[in-house]
Amino acid sequence: MLSYRHSFHAGNHADVLKHTVQSLIIESLTEKEKAFLYLDTHSGAGRYQLTSAESEKTGEYLEGIARIWAASERPEILAPYLEIVEKLNPDGELRYYPGSPLLAKELLRSQDQLIMTELHPSDYPRLVEEFARDRRAEVLKEDGFQQLKSKLPPVSRRGFVLIDPPYELKTDYEAVVSGIVDGYKRFATGVYAIWYPVVSRTQINKMVEALRETGIRKILQIELGVQPDSEERGMTASGMIVINPPWKLEAQMQAIMPWLYQTLVPDHQGHTLIEWITPE
């Protein structure tokens, strides 16, 4: 099944959380001179037009990046992420939003490597075009989960893997866990970040417990809810589960999460969560 298009959801509250965490991880990795691999298993199109028919149909960005954009003061910790959004919108009007591949492209250095995979027949050529002149990048029309076997460990022995499936199928939750096990066997020191939507809390609890049962240590869960949990509302929250997070990521998210919650959830009907699934 390949019906999911992120263009309907680009810039929503889940993207804000995901890209905040992603940018902080990349910034931490670039503090050391040695090169690293950025591997994006479900890349999407790379960039999105917020005035497109898809985006305007849902208007989800209006309760996400648009609220951040309109804030009179933005915390310095968000600067690496928001500077890229500003670069796409130099006239100050919010029209475009970067996907995770474009964020990585802008934040990585000349010595780093990017590998991205996308299967959707409409998004893949757009991703290829986005990276056509980037010698650091490899764009593949392949199963993203398989890259956790074929591309790891990287030659540099440093890496960040972003796993962001559409969860169209319930088997995606199981594939995330098995993919982590496959990747970790090959590359135990890498940073892995799993994005997840909270549509069914029961499903998320099962995935978290399955990750705990792998025996892998240093697994941090970060979650932002915009509505109370419900089986009827659609996505009420989203989160990032990070394996081997940079040492300061927990403190950074503890610092920024109250501002994100205040800005993105003005009615305070949601929740935040930052806790260890398994500690070191």
Largest sheet: 8 strands, mixed
Task: Count every helix, treating DSSP H or I runs of 4 or more residues as helices.
Answer: 10
CATH architecture: 3-Layer(aba) Sandwich
What gyration radius follows from the Cα positions, in whole Å? 17 Å
Give the tally of structural domains: 1
In brief, what are we looking at here?
The active site is at residue 164. The chain has 280 residues and is α/β, with parallel strands linked by helices.
Describe this structure in words.
This protein has 280 residues and is α/β, with parallel strands linked by helices. It is built from ten helices and ten strands. The strands form two sheets. It has an eight-stranded mixed sheet with strand order 5-4-1-6-7-9-8-10, sandwiched between helices. A two-stranded antiparallel sheet has the order 2-3. Strand 4, helix 6 and strand 5 form a beta-alpha-beta unit. Helix 1 packs antiparallel against helix 10 and helix 8 packs parallel to helix 9. The chain is globular and about 45 Å long. It catalyses: adenosine(2030) in 23S rRNA + S-adenosyl-L-methionine = N(6)-methyladenosine(2030) in 23S rRNA + S-adenosyl-L-homocysteine + H(+). Its EC number is 2.1.1.266. Specifically methylates the adenine in position 2030 of 23S rRNA. InterPro entries: RlmJ (IPR007473), SAM-dependent_MTases_sf (IPR029063).
